[in-house]
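Troubleshooting log. The previous structure file for this entry was overwritten by mistake, so regenerating from the original sequence record. Sequence copied from the archived sheet and checked twice against the printout by T.R.
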Amino acid sequence: MSSRRTTTIAGSLLTASFSAVMILSFTAVADDQGPGSSKGGKVIDEAPAGVKLTTLLPEKISVDNSSQKTAITATVKNEGTKDSGDIRLLVVGFDGLTVKGVKGCSAMADKDLPKGSNSGFVCSVGNLAAGKSKSYAVDATFDLSKTGKICLPVQTSDGKKTYWQQGPVPFGTTNPSPNAPATPLLLGTDNKPVAPGGDQLPKTGVGSDVLPLGAAGAALISAGAAGLWWVHRRPRRSEQH
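Regenerated output below.
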């Protein structure tokens, strides 16, 4: 009797411990976006001597399958030896990725959005000292039935020069999980969308129904060319933010 009771208690403790480990593990994965990466980034216009501006995006994000909501941390960094001067960061969404808000930043007017984008925000960074960085919390949605891309140009405050541009770079997964609570997406990965039925997984990529700018951005990145898409869409007048 004593032995049976001891076995029952031990089994309950083991189950409780296992549950606790599962909860803690899920929480850590859900909150951990991984290290920042400048993947898909390139210099456009030459920055002043001693100034080296880059951006960072998380290696992975998690999309809630019910609400389609996700959170992204966008970081601008001055890796140079001199202050940047007055700069701004743009956060622009494409295809299935829509930027809903960026803390401390202003929404772009529809007429000022780059061709092919669906949303954008302007963040007035100001003067970024040498070796310093500034991060912004981005609220977004991701339609998992589509591909999705994000772009981070770093410009002078008047938008006349773009010192650095990351993207349009995709977030996605090659292994969709429509029945799970959330779907993890990796930076630099083309999304393999879930069909409306949830069973068929249509192939996406070159030749698929992708917005022209996304394809152009990918081609420019592959060729190592400057991201001229933004140059063509620079506002006619200086923006004040």
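The two ends are 76 Å apart (CA to CA). Archived copy saved in two places this time.
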